[in-house]
Amino acid sequence: MANVVFRLSSKRSGDKSELLVRFYASRVIDLRAHTRLFVPTELWNDKMQRLLIPRRVVTEDTIAATEIQSKIEELRTLILNEYTQTHDERDVTKSWLERIIDQFHNVDRHELTPLSAMVDRYIVARNITPRTGDQYEVLKRMLDRFAEANKTLYVGRIETADIGAFELFLREEEVTTKNGKRRMVERSRNTINSKLRRLRALCNYCVEIGMTDSNPFNRYKIPADVYGTPVFLTLDERDKLYATHFDNPSLERQKDIFVFQCHIGCRVSDLLSMTTENVTPDGFIQYIQFKLRKSNPIVVRVPLTETAKEIIAKYAGQPDGRLLPFISQDKYNDAIKRVLTDAGIDRMVLVQNKHSYKSEPKPICEIAASHLARRTFMANMFRQTRSERIVSSFTGHARGSAAFSRYTDVDDEMKRQIISGIDTSK
C-alpha cells in the first residue's frame, strides 16, 4: 500500500522548518525528497501528520498556516494520484518524486500544456520546412488521438511508461472505414520509429526552453530500424521501361521522369525542386541535397547520360523554369507502380513483411516507389565500379554511412563473376 509521510527537517529558519516527504509503496520503493514547503515548527504534529492550528483566534499567522496545511494535503494527493497512473514501478524513482514536487510548485507551467500544443511552436522555433512540418502535424494529430483513447501527455508529466504506451497505440491503433468496419492501421517498425524520434525532438525542445527538467527519453531507447535487402531494377528493366510508350500522356510523362531519376540517382525531394539552373553548361546535373542541406551541404554533381539529356530536351519550357513536369509525390508513386505493371516489369523479389518481419515474394512493380530509382542508380553503379567511394560521390552519402552500405552488398551476378575468375577447370 502506498503511503506519504511528512516530517520536519532538522534545519530551521527562524520559527519555521522545511517539510520533508517520504513516499513508500513496496519493498523496493522508498523515496525521500525536500518539499520546499516551510511550516511553523511549533504547530507541526508528527503523529497526526498535520499542523495543529488554533481555531479560537484568527490571525494572519493562523490563516497562513491553514493555507500551508491545504498545500500539504494537495501535495499528498498529487503524489498518490501520480503513482496510481504510473504503469511501470521502475519509473518511480527519486527524480520522479522530485518532478512531482516541481510540478506542484509550478502548476501553470506544467499541467496546462499538452505536448501536442508545442508542435506549432517547435516548427517555428526550428525553422522547419513545410514538408517536414507536415510530418510534425501528423504527430500532433496522433497525440490528440492518443489523448482521446488513453491519456493526455502534458509537458513535464510524461513518464517513460507513457512513451511505451504511445508506441503500443501506434502499433495497434484502429480506425473506422467508410463502411463502418474497424481495421488496424498498418505501420511498420521504421514508421513508428520515425514518429518516436520526432516525439523525442519535441521533448528535448521542451527541456531546452526550460518548460521542464524531465525528459522521458532519458531512459527510453527507440528500437533500431529494420531494413531488408534493397530491391532495384536491372539496367535491362530500366531501359525496357523507357522504351515502352504510353498512350496516356500523364503516364508517359511520369515514366520519363522516373527513368530520368534512375539516371541521376537523386532523392525525390531533390527531384521535385530541380529547375533548369541545376543543369550546367558542361553537361552535369548539380544540386545540394535537401535532406542534408543543414548538416552537410555539399554540391552533388552527376554527368547527364544521353537518355537524361533526351528527357530534359523533351520537356523543355516548363513553367517557372522547372526541369520536368512534376506532380505530387503520392501521385508520382502511384504512377510508378502503374507504368512498371503495364510495361510487364513484374519480376518477383523478396521483401520483408512490415509486421511479421518474414520474407515474402512480391512483384517488383507492386512495391515500387520513387526511392526505387535511387536504389537502381546506386546498385548498378556499384556493380560497374566496385567502389563505394566512387558511388558515394554520385549520391552524396557520407563515408561510412550505414544506409549506404546496404546498397553496396555483393549480389549474385558479382558472385558469379568472382567464382568464374577463380575457376581453374575452365
Features:
two-stranded antiparallel sheet, elongated, hpI Integrase, Chain A, 3-stranded antiparallel beta sheet, 11 strands, about 45% helix, alpha+beta, DNA polymerase, domain 1, 17 helices, 3 domains, about 425 residues
Task: Describe how the helices and strands are arranged.
Layout: E1 3-13, E2 16-24, E3 30-40, E4 44-45, E5 50-51, H1 60-84, H2 94-105, H3 107-110, H4 119-125, H5 130-149, H6 160-172, E6 174-176, E7 182-184, H7 189-208, H8 235-243, H9 249-264, H10 268-272, E8 284-288, E9 299-303, H11 306-314, H12 329-342, E10 348-352, E11 359-363, H13 364-367, H14 371-385, H15 388-395, H16 402-405, H17 412-421
Antiparallel strand pairs: 1-2, 2-3, 4-5, 6-7, 8-9, 10-11
Helix pairs in contact: 1-2, 8-9, 9-11, 9-12, 9-14, 14-15
What does this molecule look like?
The chain is α+β, with helices and mostly antiparallel strands. The protein has 3 domains: 3-89, no CATH class; 109-219, Tyrosine recombinase, N-terminal domain (DNA polymerase, domain 1), CATH 1.10.150.130; 235-421, Orthogonal Bundle (hpI Integrase, Chain A). The protein is built from 17 helices and 11 strands. It has helices at 60-84, 94-105, 107-110, 119-125, 130-149, 160-172, 189-208, 235-243, 249-264, 268-272, 306-314, 329-342, 364-367, 371-385, 388-395, 402-405, 412-421, and strands spanning 3-13, 16-24, 30-40, 44-45, 50-51, 174-176, 182-184, 284-288, 299-303, 348-352, 359-363. It has a 3-stranded antiparallel sheet. A two-stranded antiparallel ribbon has the order 4-5. α9 crosses α12 (329-342). The model has no long low-confidence stretch (mean pLDDT 84).
